[in-house]
Write a structure and sequence with these properties.
alpha+beta, 2 domains, 15 strands, binds 1,6-di-O-phosphono-alpha-D-fructofuranose
Length: about 300
C-alpha cells in the first residue's frame, strides 16, 4: 500500500499549514514536469538576476511556482533565482518565506539530462538575516527517468517520494542516511584546479585511491546521487571567475545543506564554515560548497588548509 505525501507528513507530525504549503510546492512540481515533457526548449531573450540567459522553461517554471505559492495563501515572501526582487503575497492562512531555484541545471535539459527544482522554507516574511538553521523545511524535485521529491522537515529526517502516474507523490524511502565516507566524488568547477593546486591534489588523491567520478553538471541530480546511494561528496569551490563560488546560498546551498544534514551528512564552504551557520545578507549571494559524507567533507576542508 503506497502512502501519499499528505498522509506521510501527518504521520511524522508536520503541522497543517506547513503541510499545505508543501502540497502547493508538489502541485508546482507536477505542472513543471508536464511542461518539461511538452518540450518547450529555447531561450526567452531575457536574463535572470545573476545576468544569466533564461530559457523559456526557466521563466515558465518560475511562473508556475510563484502562482502556487500565491494560491497557498501561506507564503508571505517568495524569492526566486530567476527574479531580482522578492515577491510579496497576501498570506492570511499563515506566514512562510520560500526561496527557490525553479529549474536548476536547465541548460542540461536539451541534452535530455536530469534537472531539478530546489526549495528552502523559513517562517515569517523576511529572508535577509535568516540562517540555514532557521529553515523549517527544504525540498528538491528531480525531473529524470523518475520524478522524485526529496524533503526534509527540520528535526524530522530526510525522505524520498516518487511521482505516480497521476502526478501525486508517494513515499518510497523514509529516514535516508548518508554514511561517513564514500567511493564516489562529484567535483564541480574543475577549471579551479588550473590555479588551485590544493583542489588539484585532492582530486588526484581521490582518483588514485580508486574513487569513481559522478558529475552531470546539475546540482540536483549530482547531490541526489549521494542521497540515492547513501554516500558521496559534491563540491563547487571558488575560482578567479567565481570568487564566492557559483551556487547561491539561499536557494541552493542552504536547502541542500538541510536535506543532507538531516540525513547525517555535512555541508560547508571550502574554508570549513558550516552552510547552515551562515546568514543571508543579500538574497542572490553565492557561496562555495562541499556537501555529503561527513568524513569526506572533513578531508576536503583539510586539503584546503
Ligand atoms: P545552470 O542552471 O546554468 O545549468 O547551472 C547549473 C548549476 O547552477 C548547478 O546546477 C551545477 O552544479 C553548476 O551550475 C554547474 O556549473 P558548471 O557549469 O560550472 O559545471
Amino acid at each position: 500500500m503506497t502512502e501519499s505525501i499528505n498522509h506521510f507528513m501527518r504521520r511524522i507530525g508536520v503541522e497543517s499549514d506547513l503541510r499545505s504549503l508543501i502540497y502547493h510546492i508538489c502541485r508546482a512540481g507536477k505542472y513543471i514536469n508536464f511542461t518539461l515533457r511538452a518540450g518547450h526548449t529555447g531561450y526567452s531573450e531575457t536574463e535572470n538576476a545573476s545576468g544569466e540567459e533564461q530559457l523559456k522553461l526557466d521563466v515558465q517554471s518560475d511562473q508556475i511556482i510563484m502562482k502556487e505559492l500565491e494560491k497557498s495563501e501561506l507564503c508571505a515572501l517568495a524569492i526566486s533565482e530567476e527574479q531580482e526582487l522578492p515577491q510579496r503575497f497576501s498570506a492570511p492562512r499563515g506566514s512562510f518565506t520560500v526561496a527557490f531555484d525553479p529549474l536548476d541545471g536547465s541548460s542540461l535539459f536539451d541534452a535530455n539530462l536530469s534537472i531539478g527544482s530546489i526549495f528552502g522554507i523559513w517562517e515569517g516574511d523576511e529572508l535577509v538575516g535568516q540562517t540555514g538553521h532557521d529553515m523549517v523545511g527544504a525540498a528538491y524535485i528531480v525531473y529524470g527517468p523518475r520524478v522524485l521529491l526529496v524533503i526534509s522537515i527540520k528535526g524530522s529526517g530526510t525522505h524520498e517520494l516518487e511521482m505516480n502516474d497521476v502526478g501525486e507523490f508517494v513515499l518510497t524511502r523514509e529516514n535516508i542516511e548518508i554514511t561517513s565516507t564514500s567511493k564516489y566524488f562529484s567535483p564541480g568547477n574543475l577549471r579551479a584546479t588550473i590555479s588551485d593546486e590544493k583542489y588539484r591534489k585532492l582530486l588526484n588523491d581521490w582518483t588514485n585511491d580508486g574513487r569513481t567520478l559522478r558529475y552531470s553538471g546539475g546540482m540536483v541530480p549530482d547531490i541526489h546521487h549521494t542521497i540515492s546511494k547513501g554516500h558521496g561528496i559534491f563540491m563547487y569551490p571558488p575560482d578567479e571567475k567565481h570568487t564566492s563560488g557559483k551556487l547561491r546560498l539561499a536557494f541552493e546551498c542552504m536547502p541542500m545543506g538541510l536535506i543532507v544534514g538531516e540525513a547525517g551528512g555535512a555541508a560547508c564552504t571550502h574554508a570549513g564554515q558550516p552552510i547552515l551557520d551562515m546568514s543571508v545578507s543579500e538574497i542572490h549571494q553565492r557561496c562555495p560548497i562541499l556537501i555529503g559524507s561527513t568524513d569526506d567533507v572533513a578531508t576536503a576542508v583539510a586539503a584546503w588548509k
